[in-house]
Write a structure and sequence with these properties.
The complex is a heterotrimer of chains A (537), B (304) and C (204). Chain B has a domain of 169 residues: Serine Threonine Protein Phosphatase 5, Tetratricopeptide repeat. Helix content of chain B is 42%, strand content 1%. In chain B, α3 runs antiparallel to α4. The two termini of chain B are 53 Å apart. Chain C has a five-stranded antiparallel β-sheet. Chain C has a two-stranded antiparallel ribbon with strand order 1-6. In chain C, α2 packs antiparallel against α3 and α2 packs parallel to α4. Chain C is globular and about 50 Å long. The chains are: A alpha+beta (537), B mainly alpha (304), C alpha+beta (204). Chain C: It comes from Branchiostoma floridae (Florida lancelet).
Chain lengths: 537, 304, 204
């Protein structure tokens, strides 16, 4: 029957001189009646809401009661004092337009005796757009059919269906945030100082780098791992499509290799423990193995389906992580190198680290997951020991504590900004620190029991923390763009950081006094990874 | 679903969030791998060239409008920042160009560019001090608010409050914004005081660790008697006597004149604008002696 | 025995689907409030759900509000009268709508309480929900900073014939003039399908 009612309404409205039978009672009548009459809360709000829905839209009529009259009226002189709470007025109902007539108690003079459209709640843009919909010229050659459909769906979603639905909101509104609360997300957009420790550090840490090296063409991509420092003091740096080796002891530089395809680039580098072989991952999904002394490529292992952004060694097993989220184990001793697949991520694997004792593999991806895998794995169907989901952004920075077994440090990306410590045996989170900026890399210093982390916008700094208190020791600034990769020298005294400003900075932040340093052999501590050797398949 | 629509999610760590938000179309386009065109320029490079050309040839009334659009375009089309999209270089160029142009002293857009630039430096308060001295932005509430916020971040709440007061006094527009922000700031400070402030990090760094002694003696290391790295314990030396240098006699005992003694020496919270500080403290310039240039790889040696 | 349990896990009834959808909204809205910085992060605590760590509010008043809205939503989902749920973020001082998260809900109208349950593995639904919530977290990539103190409101679009309960009122759509729109992922329980998108003020 509603359509008949509608017809009646329209007819009534078209009669200019007739009395209004519905809606608020005119002022003169009200005064005559001596009693204040409220025309009902729902009526008033529907009046307002319908007006807001309608705004200047004359064509799209809703069959709601008083809507036509509302739009046909010209705005009156009286300011809409009854309508929306103006800015500055402390209202318990933020964002809602209400008439005072909504209260259970009827006001002395109901102010809604005629309709006054509310300019601030009207959506002029929408109304105007709808009115001129036919005339709007859309650059249609630019849009593919699917795009057009998308546009239509979008506009339908956003603008169209108001006609056929009711929009409802719960009357008792949600509480507001405490007064003066500043949106904590502001740290993302400018410099923020993290609180520093009150105690002075007991050694001298130079605040400027020992050396700055130019790194032209280094790719500005968070997800890659382009730096690696071998036990033989060779620093491997991937610049664009080439890999360079810098002998830190002599200063000599040599170009090891260059990708052949025009669009290919190097996406990951990793040294074998003995320092004679370098694994190189590339954008065309290859994992190459180079003999550095002979400057020869020894193997080209292809099994991944997309670019290999992370690599790490465990004795003779090389693990590779790809953009597809898969991790492959390659046994470099045998021809059929692909011995296992770990399917724990749905997006790019950007962090990959074996623990020093070879028992665990930590992997972090763009899907915000941190997986800890055991060393025992089958060809397929491997399941992580722990899947840690606390990070709210990509996990690239991963590093195992060299003096405490099974302690892992991980750092989160832009939306997370935290460093977390984990017990890999139990999967329990031991500690969390908010660093206020994107974390790209973490390294431990055994000598001083400290941690160094590399960061992005806006400070682009390296922060040194005391472990386990996580008191900030110092910040090393200087990079003009975000820090992307870090590596540590074999003697643990120097840290190199590569940033998007195309420089490498060498910081002598963990220097040791000469007489204190025990006579060290040049090859690293070989912890016999007996666990892995037992896994003879 | 169109795979391109979600490409922003796959590269989310490579995007620097913008305060005013990003246009998703520009973001998606910027994140696509650039196809190296033979000889030609990419769309982005072409647009950049167009802007540079416009800057050179503009002859209208509002030169800053070109810069303003260029800055906003750079932000939207270079999500990683990086060399090509170096926003700080562009901002520096622009701000230096207009620093003496009084037309823009209270231009809202110009101040926004300064605020953006200040947020990228190590010492934003330095920039705000300069702007205050040059009376740039004195009528724009945004300037006072941004300055007060930086001071609040540094912990200098007294000065932050003074900044709000001065901004309101000078009737910076819109005044209501400043009044409101000051109230919120005061509410925050009050709340922080009630909660007892930030607890100092006392755990862990206990008294058992040795402390460095100010102006304490150090033992030289090695043949060249170099300064030790570790400055406590065995590396220190206690000097029981002074240096053995004798003082010389002053020209006369006491002064021939008297120094004026102030009744209540006042602390100046915000220095008054003098207009004397003409060169902005650009980090590139102020840290010139503190920055090294990249050196040759072959000249650098790190003992392994 | 195991086979029967397996079947039970994968079969979705109308009631089950409504439960899944309203639960998603509970966690989804909490995620939006946390990620956008509308309430202080200290007022949130971590919970495990859908294989993710999610942040949910500990504020009692806020919890009550959300519960009240979502309970009603669940009823309406069962009645198949819900079309959209919208999270509107407004500046308290200027009353301007700054952000608008719109979730379109499509329901298979042929389903009733007594219909045969649909088959869809719960794991698959959870994975889809996980992807949507992850996108909400990642949206900081392009969304502008909410500079001012904001409040939020929940709007539910229903069929026009619906009887409006006492505790609810009609409202406007609260669109954003000159907005950027980004379509996000969707998930489906095979009975209800939820599409997500976010609108925010144009950067200019």
């Amino acid at each position: 029957m509603s359509h008949l009612k509608f017809e009646n309404d329209v007819n009534q409205l078209l009669r200019l001189d007739s009395a209004f039978t519905d809606g608020p009672v005119p002022r003169w009548q009200r005064k005559a009646m001596e009693s204040s009459r409220c025309s009902g809360p729902s009526n008033n709000t529907s009046l307002n809401s319908s007006c807001r829905n309608m705004s200047l839209n004359v064509s799209g009529c809703t069959p709601m009661k008083t809507s036509n009259r509302a739009s046909a009226k010209t705005p009156s002189h009286t300011p809409g004092k009854a309508k929306t709470p103006r800015s500055g007025r402390k209202s318990k109902t933020p964002g809602k337009s209400k008439t005072p007539g909504n209260n259970a108690k009827t006001p002395k003079t109901p102010v809604a005796d005629r309709f006054i459209p509310n300019r601030s709640a009207s959506n002029f843009e929408l109304g105007n757009f709808k009115c001129n919909a036919d005339k709007v010229h859309v650059d249609e050659e630019m849009l593919s059919p699917s795009k057009q459909q998308y546009q239509e769906a979008m506009s339908e979603n956003l603008n169209g269906n108001v006609v056929n639905s009711k929009i409802l909101a719960y009357k008792n509104k949600a509480p507001q945030a405490p007064e003066g609360y500043q949106n904590n997300m502001r740290v993302l957009y400018s410099q923020t100082k993290t609180p520093s420790s009150t105690r002075k550090v007991t050694r001298h840490i130079p605040q400027v780098p020992e050396r700055i090296l130019d790194a032209p063409e280094i790719l500005d991509d968070y997800y890659l791992n382009l730096l690696a420092w071998s036990c033989n003091n060779h620093l491997a740096v991937a610049l664009g499509n080439s890999v360079y080796l810098w002998n830190a002891g002599t200063g000599d530089i040599q170009q090891l290799m260059s990708m052949s395809g025009p669009e290919d680039y190097v996406s990951a580098v990793s040294w074998i423990a003995e320092g004679n072989f370098l694994a190189i991952g590339s954008s065309n999904a290859e994992v190459q193995l180079w003999d550095v002394a002979a400057q020869k490529r020894v193997r080209n292992m292809t099994s991944q389906s997309s670019r290999v952004g992370s690599l790490d060694w465990n004795v003779y097993i090389l693990s590779s992580g790809s953009r597809a989220g898969t991790i492959h184990h390659h046994d470099v001793r045998i021809a059929d190198h692909h011995v296992a697949t770990l399917d724990g991520h749905t997006q790019e694997v950007c962090g990959l680290k074996w623990s020093p004792d070879g028992r665990y593999l930590a992997s972090g991806g763009n899907d915000n997951l941190l997986n800890i895998w055991g060393y025992q794995c089958t060809r397929e169907g491997n399941v992580p020991l722990h899947t840690l989901t606390q990070h709210q952004a990509a996990v690239k920075a991963l590093s195992w504590c060299p003096w405490q077994a099974s302690v892992l440090a991980s750092g989160g990306g832009t939306a997370d900004r935290c460093i977390r410590f984990w017990n890999a045996n139990t999967g329990h989170c031991l500690n969390t620190v908010d660093t206020k900026s994107q974390v790209c890399s973490i390294l431990w210093s055994k000598e001083y029991k400290e941690l160094i982390s590399g960061h992005g916008f806006a400070n682009n700094q390296l922060t040194i923390w005391k472990y386990p208190t996580m008191a900030k020791v110092t910040e090393l600034t200087g990079h003009q763009a975000r820090v992307l990769h870090m590596a540590m020298s074999p003697d643990g005294t120097t840290v190199v950081s590569a940033a998007a400003d195309e420089t490498l900075r060498l910081w002598k932040c963990f220097a040791v006094d000469p007489q204190k340093k025990p006579a060290q052999k040049s090859h690293p501590d070989k912890k016999t990874n007996t666990l892995l050797r037992q896994q003879i398949r | 679903m169109d795979p391109m629509e979600n490409s922003w999610e796959l590269s989310k760590e490579n995007v620097q969030p913008l305060r005013q938000g990003r246009k998703i179309a520009n973001l998606t386009a910027a994140l696509q791998p650039v196809n190296g065109q033979e000889g030609g320029l990419t769309r982005v490079q072409q647009e950049k060239q167009a802007f540079e050309a416009e800057l050179r040839m503009y002859s209208g009334d509002d030169p800053f409008s070109v810069w303003d659009r260029y800055i906003k375009w750079t932000e939207q089309n270079f999500p990683k920042g990086g060399k090509d999209g170096s926003l700080s270089t562009l901002l520096e160029r622009c701000l230096l160009f207009f620093k003496d142009d009084k037309r823009y002293s209270n231009d809202h857009r110009y101040l926004q560019a300064w605020i953006k630039f200040a947020g990228m430096t190590n010492q934003p308060v330095d920039i705000y001090n300069f702007l205050h001295d040059q009376a740039i932005g004195a009528q724009v509430s945004l300037f006072w608010e941004a300055w007060a916020w930086e001071l609040e971040q540094e912990g200098d709440t007294k000065k932050a409050d003074a900044v709000y007061m001065e901004g309101i006094q000078k009737q910076a527009q819109p005044v209501e914004l400043l009044v409101r922000k000051q109230k919120e700031f005061q509410a925050r400070v009050a709340r922080a005081t009630l909660e007892g402030g930030v607890p100092q990090q006392s755990a862990g760094m206990s008294g058992t660790e040795a402390q460095r002694v100010t102006l304490g003696g150090l033992r030289g290391q090695g043949k060249k008697h170099q300064a030790p790295v570790s400055r406590t314990g065995a590396s220190t030396k206690v000097y029981s006597t002074g240096l053995g240098v004798k003082p010389c006699a002053p020209p006369q005992v006491g002064q021939a004149f008297s120094v004026f003694s102030e009744d209540n020496p006042q602390d100046q919270v915000i220095p008054a604008p003098t207009g004397e500080w003409t060169n902005p403290p650009l980090p590139r310039v102020t840290s010139r002696e503190n920055t090294h240039k990249p050196g040759k790889w072959t000249e650098a040696k790190i003992e392994g | 025995m195991a086979g029967v349990l397996q079947a039970a896990k994968n079969s979705i009834t109308l009631k089950g689907s409504a439960e899944i959808v309203s639960e998603f909204f509970s966690y989804g809205i909490n995620s939006i409030l946390y990620q956008r910085g509308i309430y202080p992060p200290e007022t949130f605590s971590r919970v495990q759900k859908y294989g993710l760590t999610l942040l949910v509010t500990t504020d009692n008043e806020l919890k009550t509000y959300l519960n009240n809205v979502l309970m009603q939503l669940k009823d309406w989902l069962l009645d198949k009268t819900v079309e959209k749920l919208v999270v509107v973020v407004t500046s308290i001082d200027t009353q301007e709508v700054l952000e608008r998260w719109q979730f379109d809900i499509e329901c298979d109208k042929t389903m009733t309480e007594d219909s045969k349950p649909r088959e869809k593995p719960l794991k698959e639904i959870n994975d889809e929900i996980k992807a949507v919530i992850r996108q909400i977290t990642a949206s900081v990539t392009f969304l502008p900073l909410l500079e001012e103190n904001c409040s939020f409101d929940l709007l539910i679009y229903t069929d026009k014939d619906l009887q409006v309960p006492e505790t609810w009122e009609e409202s406007g759509p609260h669109f954003i003039a000159k907005s950027e729109e980004v379509r996000l992922r969707s998930f489906s329980t095979s009975i209800h399908k939820v599409d997500a998108m976010v609108c925010y003020k144009n950067a200019d």
